[in-house]
């Protein structure tokens, strides 16, 4: 009788044989956690009073002068909030404002009407920034998790939200170089058929894309469970440099052709 009572007390609830209940699927738990993070982010995207615009502006400034410091902030976020991705949409809101302001400049240079300006703005935000960003972030997220992750006792994965944040971080300096600096130089210096115009315009593209690659590399190299992250730095930079030399030899002005493409897609679609 005593032994049966001891067995009954030692057996967990809903376990008639005294066996331990099966633990939930860890992949399912991670998926639910990611979904909860996305819902929290989307709920806050219209709550401007809860956004920390001061930190977002600080990040934008340092992305231009010392991007390493920005990713230290991401490491602090991992330690305090247990996630690498941003939980505050303030950076995305400020980036959208910058895209809108720079689009006004393009509308002036290209002499676009109001409806054409709105169409151009939608293209820049939802195609050039978000659409291309979704593609790049997904590819790099897959490559990092599949080929660059270090085998550790506790499995750690690259968060897709962090991969998209890395794209946004890298996109901001590119935006400043190509949509602000280049725009001021376009009419007086770049919009010409000569080699110097091609050299200046293409060099700005080289700087912008190389800086995008560098900030992207810094983002993934900040993750302690990834190895060989230089694969995101040297091969892309080599390809971009080769294309840069080819465009100079062919005297193909990237900026002028991009402007023609912008004007064409706004007027035609």
UniProtKB/TrEMBL annotation:
Residues 9-31 are annotated as: Disordered. Its main location: membrane. It is a multi-pass membrane protein. It comes from the Eukaryota. Residues 10-26 have a biased composition (Low complexity). Keywords: Membrane, Transmembrane, Transmembrane helix. It is found in: Membrane. The chain crosses the membrane at residues 46-65, 90-113, 120-144, 164-187, 199-220, 232-254. It holds the Pfam family UNC-50. One of its GO terms (cellular component) is Golgi membrane. Belongs to the unc-50 family. This is Unc-50-like protein. It comes from Patiria miniata (Bat star).
């Amino acid at each position: 009788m005593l032994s049966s009572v001891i067995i009954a007390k030692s057996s967990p609830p809903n376990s008639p044989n005294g066996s331990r209940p099966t633990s939930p699927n860890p992949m399912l738990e991670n998926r639910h956690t990611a979904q909860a993070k996305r819902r929290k982010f989307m709920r806050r995207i219209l709550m401007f009073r809860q956004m920390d615009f001061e930190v977002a502006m600080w990040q934008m400034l340092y992305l231009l002068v010392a991007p390493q410091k920005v990713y230290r902030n991401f490491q602090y976020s991992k330690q305090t909030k247990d996630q690498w991705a941003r939980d505050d949409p303030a950076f995305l809101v400020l980036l959208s404002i910058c895209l809108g302001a720079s689009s006004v400049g393009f509308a002036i240079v290209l002499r676009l009407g109001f409806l054409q300006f709105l169409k151009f703005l939608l293209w820049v935000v939802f195609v050039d920034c978000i659409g291309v960003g979704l593609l790049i972030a997904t590819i790099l997220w897959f490559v990092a998790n599949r080929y660059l992750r270090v085998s550790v006792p506790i499995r750690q994965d690259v968060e897709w939200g962090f991969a998209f944040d890395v794209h946004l971080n890298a996109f901001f300096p590119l935006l400043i170089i190509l949509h602000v600096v280049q725009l001021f130089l376009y009419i007086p210096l770049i919009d010409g058929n000569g080699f110097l115009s091609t050299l200046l315009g293409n060099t700005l593209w080289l700087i912008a894309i190389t800086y995008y690659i560098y900030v992207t590399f810094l983002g993934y190299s900040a993750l302690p469970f990834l190895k060989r992250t230089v694969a995101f730095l040297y091969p892309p930079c080599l390809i971009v440099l080769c294309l840069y030399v080819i465009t100079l030899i062919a005297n193909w002005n990237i900026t002028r052709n991009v402007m023609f493409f912008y004007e064409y897609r706004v007027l035609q679609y």
